Amino acid sequence: MLSVISFNVDHGYLEGLVRGMKAGILTRADYHNLAQCDTLEDMKLHLQCTDYGKTLSSSEDDLTVSLVDSKLRENLVAEFSCLRSNALPPLSTFLDYITYSYMIDNVVMLITGALKQRDVAELLPRCHPLGAFDQMAAVGIARTPTELYSAVLVDTPLAQFFQDAVSESNLDEMEAEILRNKLFKAYLESFHSFCKNIGGATKDIMCPILEFEADRRAFIITVNSFGTDLSNAERSALYPACGRLHPEGLCLLGAAQDAAQVKDVADRYPAYKIIFEEPEPGSGFKTLEDRFFEQEVKLNTLAFLQQFHFGVFYSYIKLKEQESRNIVWIAECVTQRQKSKIHNYITIFQGTEQ
Amino acid sequence: MGSLLRGEEMCLAQLFLQSGSAYDCIVELGELGLVEFRDLNPNVNAFQRKHVNEIKKCEEMERILGYLLREVKKADISLPEGDVNPVAPLPKHVMAIMEQLQRLEVELGEVTRNKEKLQRNLLELTEYTHMLRISRSFVQKTSEREPLQVQYEEFPFLEKDTLMDYSSMQRLGAKLGFISGLIKRTKIEAFERMLWRVCKGYTILSYAEVEEYLEDPDTGEPTRSVVFLISYWGDQIGQKVKKICDCYHCHLYPYPSTNEERNDVVEGLRTRIQDLHTVLHRTEDYLKQVLMKASESVYTWVVQVKKMKAIYYILNLCSFDVTNKCLIAEVWCPVNDIPTLRRALEEGSRKSGATVPSFVNRIPTNDTPPTQIRTNKFTSGFQNIVDAYGVGNYREVNPAPFTIITFPFLFAVMFGDLGHGVIMALFALWMVLYENNRKLKNTRNEIWNTFFEGRYIILMMGLFSIYTGLIYNDCFSKSLNIFGSGWNVTAMFRAQVWKNADISGNRFLTLDPNVTGVFNGPYPLGIDPIWNLATNRLTFLNSYKMKMSVILGVIHMSFGVILSTYNHSHFRKKHNLYLVFLPELLFLLCLFGYLVFMIFYKWLVFTAKDSREAPSILIHFINMFLMQGDGVQPLYPGQIGLQVFLVVVAVLSVPVLLLGKPVYLYWLHNGGHRPGLYRGYERVRRNSEEELYLMRDHDMEEGSSHSDLSSSGDRQTDEFDFADEFLHQAIHTIEYCLGCVSNTASYLRLWALSLAHAQLSEVLWTMVMRVGLRMDTSLGILFLVPVFGLFAVLTVSILLVMEGLSAFLHALRLHWVEFQNKFYSGTGVKFCPFSFSLLPSSFEQYGLL
Fold it and tell me: Which molecular-function annotation in GO is an example for this chain (chain A) (predicted)?
């Protein structure tokens, strides 16, 4: 149990640090200015006035969107590794948990890459550096999930999520996707129980976020499975069982056959009803994914309202990721001259001005 | 002095800069540092401004310069940070600099890339030689061990051929393969484990550590590596092994199949390594030459680029007139500097060869100008003390000139010790004498800089401490007997009060000043040294210092109140003089001024003879408030009457203070005549009527775009809200009246700290120095050396530094709170002129390193 009294002894510095970094998250006014830019150079100029400072200006090459993306990612990784290297248990474990989701994504990406006969050297730079691990490059060797587990991943922290995923079937793209979802299910459930064990404010903050994450996966899996040869039973096995949909909602989702039925399920839960509601014709159209992101941002900003808990670290990373997505989106729009769509970013903090 | 008391008179001026000569004019202004520019395009984004491309170019150059500096630093070439002050380059010369820089960058980049490539090559070759050398021993080892493993690995054909060499291995066909290479020491264990897991034991791994540290080309850190040799069976496993090697970033090198080949390769490698070494040396020499050449002019470039960037920032603040022929800038400028400003503009126009001159126009404004107080190296420290509390309002009385004396004095009252003062003054004097020393000036130690900036303050504090030390007669807690004590002990014997037996019989004897000859009048300067021997010294000094603190406090505060009259009369608020200043002063003087009077009265009237009848001032003061004096003897005739009168005056001044100003303003607002209230504005108007007229014409020509800006202040009408005014005055009244009591008490810190300082230095003397002096054998001389060392260290660290800081802090508080709240509002804005000299002046501060 983490008590409020002793929290600052071990984690006070890092919490202060992360709250300070949170103050650097771009506000509405910043986005407003960014959206007015005509070239990437302009964006660079504006980002110089923010906490990004010289992140973008240190390179000699011309700016491209992918360069912006990788620079922002580097920035995030630098911040995260600063936090991680200063963390003490149980915060260090918590931070490790954050990296596991990136690891899973990396593993699956490498598997699919290997299936398409891509070179590992070409794939590695595309892996998220937060989820990097030593054995990453060897993932391509494995042919079945069992082999993957026993040869490559057994030493990595991902091994604990493999209990359900071990199977002898050959890895193909479908199988890789299933593997990803199985791993994520195990990961989310494990992370959820870990946060629950920590208790206190961490539990209060993190559990809703993780429950939302689990439900989001369940919805997305269901929606994406329509039109594939994934059976309902197989599908149900992929749903993370720590969300709010568990157990009734998941049963209903498992039985759903088309998008309308999914919407029916969502309607039973007020929190998800808003997300699935058809947007009004006048307002800008947003994809389901965007609306989920919006909800996630809302949940994550709540984390900063309480003190003495680990949720701020998770939320900060997720918000910063969303910010990178926003900047990259604006950069894309700027380079492709799609000014009409430029406002489809998700504002994180409203900021003090305006 | 006038400027230091009030600050400079400022005016808003418009600069009309011909677009051709604008750059040169700004250069001149930047060198002089006369004016503060106002932003005329506050609504324009940073990247939509006029000169954003030039700024980008400057940033590009800065980036290259940063790269250059890093390379120069890496090569360990010293950077000359000369005193040269190159002028900002002309726009036409910028391209030359830019080209030079770009050429340098390309050249450097090529050379460093080459160098890196060569180094990488060299590393590979060295690794290869290590591998060959070390793996030779593997073969010998494996051949000895072979029989054992062979059975284990179930390779039956190897059994027959126990003494293996490579020719025999080759005979076994292509199925047996070798992979060899280097891997980082830290990864070998995981590597081995994974190899075993993936290949299920169909491999043999042998490895040995390289004794040398090899430099990692990516991080440049020396790391330990391990040479390994994997022998595997079968092609499929071979592929897996290769993949695993890739994944662990192993450096793989071909494994020679025969001994002869191995020797050939080793030979070849040796010559190539030698060749590479020479090439590498040449490259490094060349690189050094290039960097040396660059390092000579890099400082000039850095300064030039900084200046240029600053100029374009300023140009971005200006607005264009309609015809695009001239730039309009609005600046705050001290009125006295306007001629200099004109000359600077003329100079700028002349330099650029413009036909139409640039010119200055004063424009009227109601905006509050920024506060500019000219300081020199002596006054700037004191001004900083004041500014740290708050920058004064425009033309408000500046406490800094008074602080120059009062601050060191109040400090010294708390720090009064002759010896400590001398040390402090000498230290400050040393800093003052060597203030032009570059090493002292340019140090980056922040603590040192703080002391150095305040060297004149410290000097004054030291000198004043010497003075108060003389008054307290304290020198390292001992007293100096310069003039001879005014007390005489033998007189006690002469008068037959004491006998010889008394001395042996008593530990303490009291001198009686009433006996003739014992007390021969006061010591000429300060406290009589005989008190240093007296046991009741503390009681005596406490009474003296406490009274002194109250006296100093009341004087200091009254002075603050009196200073407020300068503000009232300057801002043409004469009513404040009668309705605020007078009741405030009466309140303070009638209560605490009277207390001071009583202290002096008691000191002067009562002598040693009638000291038994000396009254307690405290009782009298309390009685004054209770309005009863029946029980005690009055100090002087008519005391009760006077006291009642004073209390009544003090009490009556409170409602005047509370109600006077709001009521008067209310009356004024509702139709009362305003005696000269707006004379200030009118004067400004008349001064610039002509200009105003001109400006209106101008405005009409160019539309109303910037007339909005300059006339926005005019529309403000003075709205009057009685409740608001009353509330403010009520708060002020309460604060002042309570403040008088608490602030007077607050001055007692002078007594407390001076007591603490004296006691601490006495403790240090008795606990350390006296112990050393008590040793009376000749060994004591040796013993005295470390004891004195300890005494000196403790004196400096505790008494000078620590006590000094604490006394400084309390003196600061007395000025900020007790003194300045009587007259100083400190809500102004500091005038920060555009000046090149304010740009950071070392590479680290440029943010390039």
Answer: proton-transporting ATPase activity, rotational mechanism
pTM (predicted TM-score)? 0.69
**Whether ipTM exceeds 0.95:** no
Question: Which 8-state DSSP code applies to residue B519?
Answer: B
- CATH number of domain containing B276: 3.30.70.2750
Helices B722-746 and B748-764: crossing angle in degrees, nearest 10, is: 30
Contacts of A343 (CB under 8 A, 6+ apart): A35, A284
Q: Do A155 and B193 touch (CB under 8 A)?
A: yes
Which residues make beta-bridge pairs with B207? Answer: B228
Q: What is the mean pLDDT of chain B?
A: 82
User: What is the three-class DSSP state of B677?
Assistant: coil
- Contact with chain A for residue B270, Cβ under 8 A: no
Q: Domain tally for chain B?
A: 4
pLDDT digits (tens, 9 = 90+) for B615-663: 888 888 888 888 776 677 788 888 888 999 999 999 999 999 999 999 9
Instruction: Say if B48 falls within a structural domain.
Output: yes
Residues B35, B41, B44, B45, Cα dihedral to 10°: 10
Is B312 found in the same domain as B210?
no
Chain A residues bordering chain B (beta-carbon distance below 8 Å): 33, 36-37, 41-42, 45-46, 49, 57-58, 60, 120-121, 134-138, 140-141, 150-152, 154-155
Among A94-98, A121-125, A294-298, B646-650, the least confident range = A121-125
Q: Could you tell me the residue range of the domain that residue B493 belongs to? A: 487-518
Give alpha helix (H) positions in A117-258: 120-123, 145-147, 173-198, 200-225, 232-236, 248-255
On whether both B644 and B753 belong to a single domain, the answer is: yes
User: B247 in a domain, yes or no?
Assistant: yes
What is the token pair recorded at A227?
């039109």
Query: Which among A37, A141, A154 has CB closest to B243?
Result: A141
Averaged pLDDT for residues B714-732: 77
A155 contacts B45? CB cut-off 8 A? no
* pLDDT-based confidence at residue B267 (cuts at 50, 70, 90): confident
Q: State pLDDT tens for residues A65-111.
A: 888 888 889 889 999 999 999 998 889 999 999 999 999 898 888 88
B499 in the same domain as B462: no
Place of tokens 């170019």: B57
pLDDT band at A27 (very low <50, low <70, confident <90, very high): confident
Tell me if B194 and A121 make a contact (CB, 8 A cut-off): no
Q: Is residue B648 part of a domain?
A: yes
